[in-house]
Amino acid sequence: MTDRPSRVLFVDDDVGKRYAISRQLRHAGFVVDEAETGAQALAMISPEHDVAIVDLRLPDLDGWEVCRRIKAGETTGGVMVLELSATWATARDRAKGLDMGADAYLVHPVEIVELVATVNALARLRRAVHERDLDRELFVATVGHDLRNPLSAIGGSLEVLGMSKQLEPREREILNRACRNVGRMRRLIDQVMVFTQSLSGDMQIHDAVVDLAALCRATIAELDTPKVDLVVDQDPPFRGDPDRLTQLVENLVTNALRHGTGTVTVRLASEGDQAVVTVHNFGPTISAEAIPTLFEPYRRASSRPGGFGLGLFIVDRIARAHGGTVSVTSTDEAGTTFEVRLPQRP
Length: 346
Fold this sequence. Notes:
alpha/beta, Rossmann fold, Heat Shock Protein 90, 3 domains, five-stranded parallel sheet, five-stranded mixed sheet, 9 helices
């Protein structure tokens, strides 16, 4: 584990109390940042913080709401939150705070030795979770690397075999099927790697000039199905990560093929300063109840077999990493449409 001192954000509008407690925390070895309001705290909080100590009685937002927003943050959800209150001090108040996401709850005035011990315990838990996440990422990266090498060798050997002019039609069909499965295995490895990066909020995006129309055509061609049409209303100039954008389009089209019926339509357009990619299919609709959680991991819109519920989560994270959004509409009359909006950059 790293030897860096634990970092604490202390949120309290009482200047005297904030000064006294912050001084004691610094004396105990913590790095302490101070905030006076809930809005200030939310602007300051970062993944570098191990613990946020939040007074419940703040001039703008109550501490429960500050806690909820910290825990809902994509990069701050792992920060431990200690709620501190002199006003709401009953067992029911403490239970409410814990139920709303706080990791600990103390009633003020609190003995400094108890406060320091509680913050230390929360910081240790935060470090343990962080180390576990790093170990998981290292494991997945190592496995992904070790799987790619033999897979590349298999793919290269199949390409060499494909150059032979002596293959019978049946043999060539088997060879082509093997090549498609090698490609599918490569994509599955990439999916797992991206999923792991997404959970830690550390998705790597490489910046390059991307021809979105050509990218969509190549992605659709790789899927090797006649059931996908591409319509290019406009081919906007775009900068982004071609590998991640390929995954985004492939996941949406694969999802539409798996859960829809008939032809899938991919449309590329430009609206203002945004590139817009839509994927449309007919078939069973997505219920209104399922839509709010559709882009969460391990969620699936139907009971049809196939997939682990990661594809749309990865789509959402790739869109976010590019500063964009993804949304869905689904009705019996119009079918299902996933829409990705990505900001165009010079």
